[in-house]
Structures are given as C-alpha cells and as structure tokens.
Amino acid sequence: VEWHIYYMHAHAPDHTYHKILNDLDHSPDASLREKLAELERSFYISLDRMIGRIAEAAGEDAIIAIVSDHGACPTEPGFKGLRVNLILEKAGLLKFADEEKKVIDWSQTLAFEDRSSYIWINLKSRYPDGIVDDSDYEKVRWEVINALHSYRDPGTGKSPFAFVLRREEARLIGLHGDMIGDIVFGIYPEAPGEHGRHIASGEYSIGSMKGLLILKGPGLKRGFKLENTVNIADLVPTVCYLAKLPVPRDCEGRIIYQALEDPDMHLTELRELEERYERLEETIRVQRALTHSYE
Ligand SMILES: [Zn+2]
Ligand SMILES: [Zn+2]
Fold it and tell me: How far is the CA of 15 from the centre of ligand 2 (A)?
C-alpha cells in the first residue's frame, strides 16, 4: 500500500497513570510500589517495541514524531479533592436542586464550572435558564475570582489554583475567543487528579505535566536536545516544512527551526536553483550568439 502519512494514538500511559500513579508515588506498601514500577517499565518497553517496529517499516527516509499532549503527576497526599462547583456553592454562587446527585438549580445559580478549566457566568443573554444581567457580569466574575483565590484545601491548607484569569486575559496561555469560559483557571501539579486542569509546565514528585516530543528523520538534527519551549501545535507546520507540504489553513503552530539541520533549507535550495537557472540562461545566451555568428 502506498502511504504518505500514518498516525496513531497510544493511550496506555495516560490510562495506566490514572490507575497507578498515586500508589506508585507514595503507597506505604513498598512491595506494591515495586510491582507498579515494574508495570510502568513493562508498558514503556512494550510501547518502545511498537514504535521500533513502525519506524523500521516506515524506512530511513520517513519523518518520525513521537508526541504527547500532556504528562501526569501524582496528587500530594492529604489533598482532599477539588470540586469547583462546591467552592462556588460555598460562596453562594451556585445552588444544587439535588445535593446528592449534584444537579444544579439554574434558577439560583450565578456561575458554574464545566469540568474543564472554565467557569461560566449564568447570563440571561446567553442561556435560556440564565439569571445574571449583562450589567452584573463583572460583579459576578469578581465574586468567582475572589472565591477561588480565598479557597484553601481542607487537607493541606494550600490553594490549588496556580492562576485565575478573566477570559480576555487568557491569551497569556494561548486561549481567546467566545468558546473559552468567562473565567479560566489552572491548578498546581500536586493538586487532585493526574492531569487535566493542571498547568502544562508543572512538575511534582515523580511526575511531570510536560509533554514529550521526539523527532527523527531527514532534515532533523540528531542527538540534539531542544532547550526552547515548543507547543504541540508546532508539530504540523514543522512536518509540513520538512516534507515540502503547504501549511494547513488555520494552523496555529510555528516551525521548530531549532530542530532542523538547516533551518534555511528551502532558501538554500532556492539559491541553488537560481544559480543553476542563471547558468542555464547564460548557456542559452552563448549558444544563441554562436548560432547568430554562423548565419
Ligand atoms: Zn489524555
Ligand atoms: Zn487521562
């Protein structure tokens, strides 16, 4: 089969870390920690073998990229869990119609989370069950911001929130437009959960939230460790640049020039072509002059 691009997603590390990371990090049972460390090693060996087989089948002239969209961190022992809607409830900004099933009573709710990193103001102008007037938008937003900033985890006494931003300020982390929440927040790597709302640069104990990027292939540096920060969105334009493909419309990333053997490869090629073209023109000119002299 002729192919140009092959891509796949391996979910094993993500799924496995949800199951084992906390025990692997700090289970009081040393033999369990050892067994889990063995399990961790074995799934990396298995993934490595799979990648090896794919790379071999792809051949030497293929560009190979191994990329992750996030890392994972264990939760600091003692953290009691983090339910943003409960924080909003305590601050009087949200009411549950059913406390047990956590069903929201929209007629008494000013703001709510959506299980991502966003908090939304229950605006009349936006939702059929909205109760907040546009004129109260800023006031309610500040109540939410203040509630998040003053919250302390009852187990550790720490604030889980690494940042709380208003939507128009979220460009700082590359977010903008109507699709993002009225308030955008990020939590510390040691706060509850293995990954999700945690800040992408976070590191805690044996974990790291940083993504992985390994590149190999023609035009790419070998044995080189990138020091600059790259974004997952940078992969596509970089591969396009190397493969001489047009960059897709709406592509947000940048070419990772630092990973390229010759960042000016296309310019170098263009200069060579220009020189050859000039020589060709010169040859044609000389030949024309010669034929003229024979006439
Ligand atoms: Zn994931
Ligand atoms: Zn996950």
Answer: 6
Task: Measure 232 CA to ligand 1 centroid, in angstroms.
Answer: 13
Number of domains within the chain: 3
Positions of the chain with pLDDT under 50: none
Which residue(s) pair with 233 in the sheet?
none
pLDDT for 115 equals 85
Report the alpha-carbon distance of residue 30 to residue 26 in Å, rounded. 9
Report CA(81)–ligand 2 centroid distance (Å). 17
Q: Which of 197, 224, 246 is the last residue of a domain?
A: 197
| CA–centroid distance, residue 86 to ligand 1 (Å) | 25
* Sign for the pseudo-dihedral over CA of 227, 229, 234, 235: positive
Query: DSSP E strands: which ranges in 39-136?
Result: 64-67, 96-98, 103-104, 111-113, 118-121
Host domain of residue 285: 264-295
Q: Are residues 67 and 93 in the same domain?
A: no
- C-alpha 194 to ligand 2 mean position (Å): 7
Is 237 within the bounds of a domain?
yes
Same domain flag for 94 and 166: yes
Q: Which-ligand-closest: CA of 70? A: 1
**In Å, how far are 14, 16, 23, 166, 239 from 147, measured between CA atoms?**
31, 34, 32, 14, 44
Query: Would you state the pLDDT for residue 3?
Result: 86
- Residue 3 lies inside a defined structural domain of this protein: no
CA of 96 from ligand 2 middle (Å) equals: 28
ipTM above 0.90, yes or no: yes
- Nearest ligand for residue 9 CA: 1
Ligand 1 centre distance from Cα of residue 198 (Å): 12
Ligand 1 centroid distance, CA of 116 (Å): 13
